Amino acid sequence: MKRRFRGIGRGRTTRRVLERGGTGPAARLNAAIGAWTGARIAPMFGRWGYFVGERLFACFPLRPKEHDLWIRLPLADQRRALALDGFRPHRRFAARGWVECDVSSPAELRRVLPWLRQSYEATCRVETP
């Protein structure tokens, strides 16, 4: 019989939302990004974190009532995104290329997927020498 190495007693249960891979727009977003080569999805601080290697390129809330998607873009792409309706500078990290937009329906998801793809590809270029 294997013994647990850490702690004593029964382990903590996983939240149902995490087991299902998200609900609503998060589930569709996770399915789309999960199909990209080298992309990794991990829950972090109440959000789904989207990574290439160790670099975070986007994140979306775990809670179904929250809809703000954060995307990290190269500065030239950030300017183009901010010129469109629905995108705004990130509250704290705008200087680092982050933008925010609300995603609460599949139509909005179609609007932001090309920007997520650009962020993913830019992160892949940085991660791989």
Low-confidence stretches: none
Number of helices: 4
Instruction: Kindly estimate the percentage of residues that lie in beta strands according to DSSP.
Output: 15-25%
Main β-sheet description: 6 strands, antiparallel
Series of secondary-structure elements, N-terminal to C-terminal: HHEEEEHEEH
**Terminal-residue CA separation:** 45 Å
Mean pLDDT reading: 84
Would you count the extended β strands for me? 6
Strand order of the largest sheet: 1-2-3-4-6-5
Name the helicity range.
25-40%
CA-based shape: globular
Rg calculated over all Cα atoms: 16 Å
Structural class: alpha+beta
Keywords:
alpha+beta; 129 residues; 6 strands; six-stranded antiparallel beta sheet
Account of the protein in words:
The protein has 129 residues and is an alpha+beta fold. It has a domain at 38-53 and 63-127. It is 35% helix and 25% strand. It contains 4 helices and 6 strands. It has helices at 16-20, 25-34, 75-82, 106-127; strands at residues 39-44, 47-52, 55-61, 68-72, 87-89, 98-102. It has a 6-stranded antiparallel β-sheet with strand order 1-2-3-4-6-5, with helices on one face. Strand 1 (39-44) and strand 2 (47-52) form a beta hairpin. The longest helix has 22 residues, at 106-127. The chain is globular. The N and C termini lie far apart (45 Å).
